[in-house]
From TrEMBL:
SUPFAM superfamilies: PLP-dependent transferases. This is DegT/DnrJ/EryC1/StrS aminotransferase family protein. Pfam families: DegT_DnrJ_EryC1. It comes from marine sediment metagenome. InterPro entries: DegT/StrS_aminotransferase, PyrdxlP-dep_Trfase, PyrdxlP-dep_Trfase_major. Transmembrane segments: none annotated. Gene3D superfamilies: Type I PLP-dependent aspartate aminotransferase-like (Major domain).
Length: 127
């Protein structure tokens, strides 16, 4: 294949300035509503409290959508990615918000573009 995946996925310093110009945007739902949604999932002991703490930390989110945040300050997502990389012994790890986002990342990483043929099963998970 000969593609340099790291070059395609590296975040450059100028990206941080762009992120700062995009925000801040208010969340589409209030914090209280988001915390109520957490009750729908049966998290283990302490997990819901940790999520509530994260939600309460910032009044506003940066970026126009919830796909991926590139942030100049250290984040819990970066820390989680680093831990998972160590645990499974891989060079790269990328946390995303949905299956669609994961598929887009995989397609980009493989260098698949307009006009390329991708063969998939007829019945699959919706994304």
């Amino acid at each position: 294949m000969g593609t340099n995946i790291e070059a395609k996925t590296t975040v450059r310093e100028e990206s941080f300035a762009k992120v700062d110009k995009l925000g801040p945007y208010k969340t589409k739902i209030h914090k209280e509503e988001l915390i109520e949604l957490l009750d729908l999932w049966k998290f283990g002991p302490g997990i819901k409290e940790q999520l509530e703490k994260l939600i309460e930390q910032d009044d506003q989110l940066k970026g126009p959508h919830l796909f991926r945040y590139y942030n100049p300050r250290p984040s819990k997502v970066d820390a989680a990615e680093e831990e998972l990389k160590k645990k499974i012994g891989t060079e790269h790890c990328l946390a995303v918000n949905s299956c669609t986002s994961a598929l887009i990342c995989a397609i980009r990483a493989l260098g698949i573009g307009v006009g390329d043929e991708v063969i998939v099963p007829g019945y699959t998970f919706f994304a």
